[in-house]
Write a structure and sequence with these properties.
- This protein is an alpha+beta fold and 211 residues long.
- The chain has helices at 7-28, 62-71, 78-94, 130-133, and strands spanning 34-41, 46-52, 99-106, 114-121, 134-142, 147-155.
- The protein has two domains: 1-56, K homology (KH) domain (GMP Synthetase, Chain A, domain 3); 60-167, Ribosomal protein S3, C-terminal domain (Ribosomal protein S3 C-terminal domain, 2-Layer Sandwich), CATH 3.30.1140.
- Helix content is 25%, strand content 23%.
- Helix 2 (62-71) runs antiparallel to helix 3 (78-94).
């Protein structure tokens, strides 16, 4: 059942949403040359166009929190949280990550705070490779029932060029060298090897008689 809303309230709510979205993108995408945002509402979907000087397909971990910001804008139902978390996991893994971990903590349902963890792929938690293989970020969302904490950990893939991941491989990485192609002869070939020369016989000394 559709809820009737006046045009004045609709314009005010749309303006507040665009202002908060613009403030969020200005803070998160400042390094990418963010210059503005356009929100287009169609009968089937809502399109959000981000204007930036550095145009890239994947902004990094900031786009993950943008997805959370849109999905958790009015988090009242547990289904919205599950849909947002699984959508983020799918988006990260499809972008080429090795693994992902999303932890949401706070008053998810009821007055008692708890945390939920969503994991997909491979994730390392100890050792020196964590410093350059795992990208971690934490954000806080202020909702009506309290503050909701979101922690996202992304494990980058190994990239020898260093563009999408670290150049240094993991300590347990095993590289298999492909065998060289062996050229097979087209016609049978026979070759004769020279006989080995016999070793010369050393002369034995004459027996010496003792008086």
């Amino acid at each position: 059942m559709a809820v009737q809303i006046s045009k004045k309230r609709k314009f005010v709510s749309d303006g507040i949403f665009k202002a908060e979205l613009n403030e969020f993108l200005t803070r998160e995408l400042a390094e990418d040359g963010y210059s503005g945002v356009e929100v287009r509402v169609t009968p089937t979907r809502t399109e959000i166009i981000i204007l930036a000087t550095r145009q890239r397909v994947f902004f990094g971990i900031q786009i993950i929190f943008l997805f959370f910001f849109l999905c958790l804008f009015d988090l009242d139902v547990m289904l919205v949280l599950l849909r947002a978390c699984y959508g983020v996991l799918r988006f990260i893994m499809e972008s080429g990550a090795k693994g992902c971990e999303v932890v949401v903590s706070g008053k998810l349902r009821g007055q008692r705070a708890k945390s939920m963890k969503f994991v997909d792929g491979l994730m390392i938690h100890s050792g020196d490779p964590v410093n350059y293989y795992v990208d971690t970020a934490v954000r806080h969302v202020l909702l009506r029932q309290g503050v909701l904490g979101i922690k996202v950990k992304i494990m980058l893939p190994w990239d020898p060029s260093g563009k999408i991941g670290p150049k240094k491989p993991l300590p347990d990485h095993v590289s298999i060298v492909e065998p060289k192609d062996e050229v097979l002869p087209t016609t049978p070939v026979s070759e004769q090897k020279a006989a080995k020369p016999e070793a010369p016989v050393m002369p034995q000394g004459a027996p010496v008689s003792t008086p």
